[in-house]
Design brief:
Layout lengths: L1 E4 L8 H11 L4 E9 L4 E9 L6 H5 L4 E5 L20 E3 L2 E3 L5 E5 L6 H13 L4 E3 L20 H10 L4 E5 L3 H14 L4 E6 L7 H9 L5 E4 L6 H13 L5 E5 L19 H7 L4 E3 L1 H5 L11 H11 L4 E5 L20 H26 L1
Parallel strand pairs: 7-14, 8-9, 9-10, 10-11, 11-12, 12-13, 13-14
Antiparallel strand pairs: 1-3, 1-4, 2-3, 5-6
Helix pairs in contact: 3-4, 4-5, 6-7, 10-11
The structure holds phosphoenolpyruvate and manganese (II) ion (MN).
C-alpha cells in the first residue's frame, strides 16, 4: 500500500506526526518514506510493508496529511503502475523532461576516444538542436585485451566540451560504484557544465550492489539496460532495486536479447516490449538500436536495419533513443562498424520525427475510438 501525502506536508508538522503515530502503533507494519522530486514540488510517499490487508483504507484517507492511498496490486511496488494509480510518470533533469509521453534522442560516441572526435560530435549535435548525448568513459568489454575506456581521466575535458556546446545530459555507463564518485568529482571540479545520466549496462543489470549504490544517490538519474539473457521480470526487478533505495529517476532501456534466433542482427530486437514496459511500470522507455542490430546492414529499400528498428520502437511509443554515432567510424575504438556518421545525423533525426508523428497520430486515433 502507498500513502501519498498532500504536497507541502513537512516532516515536523503535527499532521505528519499524527500519521506516523498511526502506523507506529501497528507493529506488523513497516514504513518506508520516499521523497519524489517533481518539476514543481516534492511529494512524500509512504510505502507500507507487512500485513497491509488488515489496514483500513478509508480511515487512513481520513487522516489530515493524506491525499490518497494506492493499493499495490503488482510486485513492482515503486516503479509499478498499480490499479487506481494516477501518479504521474517521469522526471525533470537539467531542464529536460523524461516521461512516458515525450521523446529524447541521445546520439553520441559509444566510447570517448579523442577530444577532436568528442568535439566534432558535440558540435554536430548542437548544430541540429540536440541537447543530449551518449559518451562512454568506462567500457565493459568482452575481451580483457580490448580498449577499456579512458576512465576518469577524460571526464573533465568531456564535461567542458559538453558545456561549450550546450549539451545538458550525457548518458555514461558506470561499471563500479567508484565511478559515481569520479563523475561527481569531475563535475564539481569543472563547475557542472553538464549533467550525467548514469547508465547501467546489460552485463550489470543484476549487479545488485551497483544497483543499490546507484539507487542510494539522488544526484544522477539512471538509465538501466534490460539484461540480455534474463527475463523481463528479472530486469524490471533490477529497476525496482534502484527505486526501492530511493532513486525514482529511472529510464528503462531495451537493447535486444542475446540469442542466435535474432541472427543476423547482433541481438534479437525486443522493441515490441516498449508498450509492455509502459503498461507494467511508470518508467520512460528507451530503445538502443545500435546495440540491438550491431551493423550497418540495409534492405533493398536503402533503409538501414538500425533505422527500421528505431522507427519500429518510436512508432510503438518509445521515449528515448540511445544511438552510436562517430565522426570517423573507422577510427572508433569501440563499435565503429555500427556507428552512424555525422552526415547521417539530420537524416536520422528526420526519420525519427516521421515515426514519432505517426505514433502521435496512432495515439489520437485510438483515443477517438475509446472516447
Ligand atoms: C553501450 O551502450 O555502450 C553498451 C555497452 O550497451 P549494452 O550494455 O546494452 O551492451
Ligand atoms: Mn557499444
Amino acid at each position: 500500500m502507498i500513502v501519498i501525502l498532500h504536497s507541502g506536508i513537512e516532516t515536523d508538522s503535527s499532521d505528519y506526526l499524527q500519521l506516523m503515530d498511526y502506523f507506529n502503533n501497528r507493529p506488523d507494519i513497516e514504513t518506508r518514506i520516499h521523497q519524489v522530486a517533481g518539476a514543481q514540488q516534492t511529494i512524500t510517499e509512504i510505502y507500507l510493508i507487512g500485513n497491509t490487508s488488515a489496514l483500513n483504507r478509508k480511515e487512513i484517507e481520513g487522516l489530515a496529511a493524506v491525499e490518497r492511498v494506492v493499493r499495490i496490486s503488482e510486485e513492482y511496488r515503486v516503479i509499478g503502475r498499480h490499479h487506481d494509480d494516477s501518479r504521474s510518470c517521469g522526471f525533470d533533469y537539467k531542464g529536460i523532461q523524461f516521461n512516458q509521453d515525450n521523446l529524447n534522442v541521445f546520439a553520441g560516441l559509444c566510447a570517448v576516444d579523442t577530444p577532436e572526435h568528442v568535439e566534432l560530435m558535440m558540435k554536430a549535435l548542437q548544430d541540429h538542436g540536440q541537447v543530449c548525448t551518449r559518451m562512454g568513459a568506462y567500457k565493459p568489454r568482452t575481451s580483457p585485451y580490448a580498449f577499456q575506456g579512458h576512465g576518469a581521466s577524460c571526464l573533465p575535458w568531456v564535461f567542458e566540451l559538453a558545456g561549450k556546446y550546450d549539451i545538458k545530459v550525457i548518458a555514461m555507463e558506470i561499471t563500479h560504484d567508484s565511478h559515481i564518485k569520479e563523475i561527481r568529482q569531475a563535475l564539481d571540479s569543472t563547475g557542472h557544465p553538464t549533467g550525467v545520466m548514469l547508465q547501467i549496462g546489460t552485463r550489470n543489470t543484476q549487479n545488485f550492489e551497483l544497483l543499490k549504490n546507484a539507487g542510494r544517490q539522488n544526484d544522477f538519474p539512471v538509465l538501466l539496460k534490460r539484461g540480455f539473457g534474463i527475463t523481463l521480470e528479472e530486469s524490471l526487478n533490477a529497476a525496482e532495486y534502484l527505486a526501492s533505495e530511493g532513486n525514482h529517476r529511472i529510464v528503462f532501456a531495451l537493447r535486444g536479447m542475446k540469442t542466435n534466433m535474432g541472427d543476423p542482427h547482433r541481438n534479437f530486437v525486443d522493441f515490441a516490449h516498449v508498450p509492455v514496459i509502459k503498461r507494467l511500470t511508470r518508467l520512460p522507455v528507451c530503445i538502443d538500436p545500435s546495440h540491438s542490430v550491431g551493423s550497418r546492414d540495409q534492405g533493398p529499400d536503402n533503409i538501414l536495419d538500425m533505422a527500421h528498428v528505431t522507427a519500429q520502437g518510436v512508432i510503438a511509443g518509445a521515449n528515448m533513443i540511445l544511438v552510436d554515432f562517430h565522426p570517423v567510424p573507422k577510427k572508433a575504438l569501440v563499435d565503429g562498424p555500427q556507428a552512424l556518421t555525422l552526415e547521417e545525423l539530420p537524416y536520422f533525426l528526420e526519420d525519427v520525427s516521421i515515426a514519432h508523428e505517426a505514433y502521435q497520430k496512432r495515439k489520437a486515433l485510438a483515443a477517438s475510438l475509446n472516447s
